[in-house]
Amino acid sequence: MDISKRRCGNCAERRLALKNVRGEFKSPWRDFPVAFVTVDLSLWTCANCGNSVMIGGDAEKIDAAYELSVRDQAAQFIDVIRSKTGIGSGQLAELIGVSPQHLSSVHSGKQRPSFSLWNFLKMIATDPVVMVKKANPNLDIIRENILLRA
Amino acid sequence: MALITFWRLADNSDRKVKGHRVPAKFDLKEVKKLIQEFAAGARGKVFFSLPQASVQYVIKVFDANNMSDREAERLIIQGLLQLTDSDFHRTIWHPHWRTLMDEYGLEAYKKHNWYIKFFIDDEGDGRFLSEVSFHPLETGMSLSNGRTLDVTYRPKG
Question: In this structure, is residue B99 part of a structural domain?
């Protein structure tokens, strides 16, 4: 069956072609309002408007790509935070409020992180030195901004 | 003249001709046959041409359920299989696709009322179901049997 001759549901053009959408494809997935694919994923995509259509079997492919991407991204966030701040995995686990075992299984890719954990790690990884300081409940910024206002 | 007649038929919002509703353009039996072939492994029989309006929309609606694309696809397929002739709303002429599409309303399925739009494409090689929209109703809808469906889902934010 020639998929390339089918119409795109967005612009109705018949310009579908298989494309590796790594780094480009994003959509809601599980508890993620928007997840990003950062592994190889081939989808039929409109050359005119960029809409990726789905045929049978694509749902499984997309799920597998997101599963890998989200786990891989979380592991990379942990690596960035640890390498830039020098904190240990136990300290990091305490900082973000999860058990060291859970953080370890997320880091090794054994467990998929929840969106909230993934998002927290992402936020810290964007500016680890400052964020680790801000997120640390023992530091002054919390005392000054929350405790002293009460 | 023929073109004007066709346009009137296609653009008629409630598809009534001389007091009678016009039946759906596509036979539900054939629609369900294509879906069953899809479910049985003939994966080319159903085509999601705009996932943002179907699979991805369903995931967004059920975000608390941690839903995957495969689970959303399954929910859509099960919903389509539940359609009956009495769920038919109207047939519309889609200007971009230059084809007729059937619109249905599915009541109280997975806690919501749904808007469904599809057509059977037989251009090119083989017939397949092109699923264009499957999402909660965004406005009220009257069905061919006189029932009216209300909006049950309000997007967050």
Answer: yes
Tokens for B17, please give them. Answer: 């001709």
- How many angstroms separate the CA atoms of A127 and A41, rounded? 29
**Does B59 contact A at CB distance below 8 Å?**
yes
Are the beta carbons of A56 and B69 separated by less than 8 Å? no
Alpha carbons A119 and A64: distance in angstroms, whole number: 20
* Position B157 in a domain: no
Residue-number span of the structural domain to which A79 is assigned: 3-147
Structure tokens at B5: 């007649």
3-state helix, strand, coil in chain B (%, to 5): 35, 30, 35
Q: Which of residues 118-157 of B touch A (CB under 8 A)?
A: 121, 123-126, 128, 130, 132
Is A9 in contact with B46 (Cβ distance < 8 A)?
Answer: no
- How many independent structural domains does chain B possess? 1
The pTM score is 0.85
Q: What is the pLDDT of residues B67-117, one digit of tens each?
A: 999 999 999 999 999 999 999 999 999 888 888 999 999 999 999 999 999
